[in-house]
Amino acid sequence: EKGPSFADRFLNFRSEIWSMNNQDLFLRNYDAKFKVMKKLLMKGLQQHNIKYYEGVTLTAIDDLFEDFKYNKGNPFDPSDSIFTAVYQMLHIMIFHTKAKRESTQFQKLQLYDKLVISRLSNSGPYILLDICPWLRYFNLQIYKDIVEIVDVGKDLFHGWKENVYNGNIKEGLFKELLDQLENDPDNLTEDNI
Prior knowledge:
9 helices, mainly alpha
């Protein structure tokens, strides 16, 4: 009964920039458009049953174990291997294709992930923008760094969109959302996706 009262997301200045003023599904406040977007997301995810997603997950975990075996018990930084495994799971769910580690899109996504983690965390110089948002008017590098996250994200989006239009991505959640964007632009925008 009180769900909508407590469903909104806490946002700071940086996350408002990153989410293009709270337009995406993950940071959007609970409203009628959020409900429409959530239904679209669920429809896209329900294209396959749970067994499909279990298989996708197990394949990515097997690849992760292969990376661990490759290092033969020697110390190594597993962050890239873990990132790859998680991204593979998400990529197959969203695009119904396996991501190629050597692809430009994969490299851009790794950069995007590192930028988000380093620049949107609650420590470091970037927190100054949350405390004093007016600092953006001084053309400071910390503000330019936050805007760079948005630029890299938009570049990723347009690369994936191009892959759909070129026929490289023929099904999946992302294609479903793009189809919905064309059919019902009143309920969905590129910023929402």
